[in-house]
């Protein structure tokens, strides 16, 4: 039984893969026409289907929207009960039906064209009833399903999905939609964060960190670091950040002399500290942490003129999800 199931699964994958190869080899100028139609669209690209084809249509609307083409899905049945109000003459509507004979789609196309919208059909039968009604047909060329009864939508929906992805990507690349554009539509995703998040968005601002003067006592330094809950204190003089005191610096000082509380912040601080600017991308800031010759957990954030504006803490940076 296990061997038979494996054989069936492999057969299905081979059949669907073969259908996609054939589709890629038989694509013609209709795809170019579809891309041009979508690029010239002044409204939205609406996708419409019902049943399994409807699921593909809904997914395609999401793909278009996330790649720079405003889009929405319309259920073919709901369209007759008010959803047609969302269709305008400025829109392009992509219909999905493998047979090309789906009653709701065939009845809906003339209504949509009557509203002035341009129409595209993705189907397995270009010469179908629906195919004769639309402005443009994209045929998948699928004639048989992977289902042994040739009934359950399998190969046909795979081809519809792949052809829709190909269309969306062709539109995206032709439009010049790049990673920065993609990030703006996915601000909470990892890519969006990597391309948009900057140090100033994740640093702890100056009024929330430990800041001391060079003449501050060791006790004052300890109190400031404890109160603000950060493992470092920035030393500021004349509006400039002149040093950094870490917990490691503090421990080493306490173990060095006979009077651990003697001295000032100037005696504790590291004058050759690493700093970064607030406009630096968070991903680049993470590289600073990673490539630093010492294991550090905090980096002062300073303006171009040397003023202290905040402190970037590694654990805060990691919580943003950029890595």
Biggest sheet: strand arrangement: 2-1-3-4-5
Tally of individual domains: 2
End-to-end gap: 43 Å
State the low-pLDDT regions, or none. Answer: none
Structural shape = elongated
* Multimerization state: single chain
Q: Calculate the mean pLDDT score and round it.
A: 90
Largest sheet: 5 strands, parallel
Q: Label the structural class.
A: alpha/beta
What name does CATH use for the topology of the largest domain?
Rossmann fold
Classified by CATH, the class of the largest domain is Alpha Beta
Based on the structure given, which CATH architecture of the largest domain is correct?
Answer: 3-Layer(aba) Sandwich
Alpha carbon gyration radius: 31 Å
Helix content range of the residues, please?
A: 40-55%
Strands, count: 11
Helix-strand string: HHEHEHEHEEHHHHEEHEEHHHEEH
How many distinct helices? 14
Strand % is: 15-25%
**CATH homologous superfamily placement of the largest domain:** Glucose-6-phosphate isomerase like protein, domain 1
Structure keywords:
323 residues; alpha/beta; Rossmann fold; CBS-domain; 2 domains; 5-stranded parallel beta sheet; 3-stranded antiparallel beta sheet; 14 helices; 46% helix; elongated
Molecular structure report:
The chain is α/β, with parallel strands linked by helices and 323 residues long. The chain has two domains: 2-177, Glucose-6-phosphate isomerase like protein, domain 1 (Rossmann fold, 3-Layer(aba) Sandwich), CATH 3.40.50.10490; 199-319, CBS-domain (Roll), CATH 3.10.580.10. Helices cover 46% and strands 17% of the residues. It is built from 14 helices and eleven strands. It has helices spanning 2-26, 29-39, 51-66, 76-79, 103-114, 155-175, 179-185, 190-196, 199-202, 218-228, 247-256, 265-268, 282-291, 314-319, and strands at residues 45-49, 71-75, 92-96, 118-123, 136-139, 204-205, 210-212, 232-237, 240-246, 298-302, 308-313. α3 (51-66) links the parallel β1 and β2 (71-75). α1 packs across α6 (155-175), α2 packs across α6 (155-175) and α3 packs parallel to α6. The longest helix has 25 residues, at 2-26.
